[in-house]
Specification:
With 195 residues, the chain is mainly β. Helices cover 0% and strands 43% of the residues. It has no helices and 28 strands. The strands form three sheets. It has a 16-stranded mixed sheet that branches. Strands 2-5-8-11-14-16-18-21-24 form a nine-stranded parallel sheet, with no helix packed on it. The protein is elongated.
Length: 195
């Protein structure tokens, strides 16, 4: 208890465990049966029931029920993770919405994006949302599979059930169920998988 800091405006649900070196700040709300920490900082964020935030930082972010994040990840303002989302090691999310069941297990950046249900985002994937002047959005459809080290150069839309190959640099929309590979990415003739 001596290593934990909890602001007066914070609410914590029943059977939630706050681990050492954790800070709960502002008007954060933590649900029931969660595990927060060790070493997490939660500021003005909402965390639903049965969530886990391990050695991670949340700022003005929302985690719905059954979400887990970390270790060493960062939800910046506007990040919203629906039920069952998994965010693993060294992931940064900003102004983005992850639909139920989406997964990003290993290091990467998602900014100004809408991620569909059951999408898999591979290790090292980045949304290239800033062109030096303006921010642009990325949209990834339900069930898409984004390969490791894919660069999605916004504005771009990846269709439901589409796949990008490892290391692809996607500068144009990928249709539903299609496969895009290469630098710059091109659409292959065969379909990737059913949407």
């Amino acid at each position: 208890p001596a290593s934990v800091f909890i602001d007066a405006g914070v609410t914590i649900g029943q059977d939630t465990v706050i681990l050492p070196n954790t800070m709960l700040l502002g008007r954060s709300r933590i649900g029931d049966e969660c595990e927060i920490g060790p070493g997490s900082i939660i500021r003005d964020s909402t965390i639903g029931h049965r969530c886990r935030a391990t050695a991670s930082v949340l700022e003005e972010a929302t985690m719905e029920e059954g979400v887990d994040i970390g270790p060493f990840s960062h939800l910046r303002p506007g990040a919203h993770l629906e039920s069952g989302v998994h965010i693993g090691n060294f992931v940064e999310v900003k102004e983005s919405h992850f639909a139920a069941g989406a997964v990003m297990g290993h290091f990467g950046y998602v900014g100004d994006a809408t991620i569909g249900a059951d999408v898999n985002l591979g290790a090292g994937m980045v949304t290239c949302n800033y062109d030096g002047v303006d921010k642009h959005r990325t949209v990834i459809g339900k069930g898409a599979f984004i390969g490791c080290d894919t660069m999605l150069v916004a504005p771009v839309t990846i269709g439901a059930g589409a796949i990008t190959g490892a290391g692809a640099v996607v500068t144009k929309d990928v249709p539903v169920g299609r496969l895009a590979v290469g630098v710059p990415a091109r659409i292959m003739d065969s379909t990737a998988k059913n949407s």
